[in-house]
Amino acid sequence: MLNDNPVAQIAVLGALAVIVGFLLLTRVAGKSGGSGSPATSATTSSAPATPDGASTGAPTASATGTVAPTTGSPSAPSATAPPTATTASPVGAFVAGPGLPGAVVKAYADDKAVVLFVFRHPGIDDAAVRASVERLRGRSDLAVFVTHAAHIARYARITEGVDVNRVPALIVLRPRHLTHGTPVASVSYGFRGRDSVEQAVRNALYKGPSDLPYYPR
To answer: What is the mean pLDDT of the segment spanning 159-176?
Structure first.
C-alpha cells in the first residue's frame, strides 16, 4: 500500500522529517545549556585578587601590625586575668596629708607593717576577710586599718600606688627598715582565709634573701 500510494509516502516522509528536526533541536539546546553552567560557576567561585596578590576576602596586615577586619562574626577577645598580687610604692612623699592619714604615717615611722583592708559589700566573703584582718589588731609590729570603698580616697596615696582596681582588697605596707626608708606595699584581692591573711603579713615582714628556689636546698 505504501509503495502504491504516493500520498501515504509523502505523509510518512513528513512525519520522519518532523521527528528528526525535533531530535536535532533537543540536542542543540542541551549542549548550549551544559556549556553555560560551568562558566557561571567558575565566575561566582573565584574571587578577584588585590594588587598585592591577596584575595579581597582575606584579612590584610597594616603597617602598624594590626589586622584589618573582615566580614562575619568577630572572634571573642581573649580574657587576661589580672594579677592577684601587686607590689609598688605609694604615690608622692610619705607625709601626712590628703590621701594619707597621719596615723598611717606614724605607724610607718614607728617601723610597723601597715595593713589596710578595703571592702564594699557586707557579704559573707568580705565579712570573713575583715574578721581575719581584725584578728591582727593588738600585734606590736602591725598597724591595722579597715575602710569602706566609699572612703577609699582617705588612703588614695597608698591605693593609687598599688593600683587598686577592685574590692575586697588587702594592702600590706612593709616596715620601713626592710625597704631602706622607701615605702613599698603589696595588694591582693578576693576572698582570703585567716591563714592566707597571715601569710600576706609574713611575706611583708620577711627579711631573708629574695633569690630562694622553689625547692628545698
So the answer is: 93
Edge to edge, the sheet with strand 85-88 lists 85-88, 185-189, 169-173, 113-119, 142-148
The DSSP H or E segment spanning 42 is helix 6-45
How far is 159 from 19, CA to CA, in rounded Å? Answer: 98
- Calculate the alpha carbon distances from 83 to 35, 109, 164, 165, 187 in Å: 65, 30, 11, 11, 10
In this structure, whether the domain defined by 85-205 belongs to CATH 3.40.30.10 is answered with yes
100 three-class SS = strand
Q: Cα torsion at 97, 100, 104, 110 (round to 10°)?
A: -60
Contact 179, 118 (CB under 8 A): no
**For range 206-215, the mean pLDDT:** 69
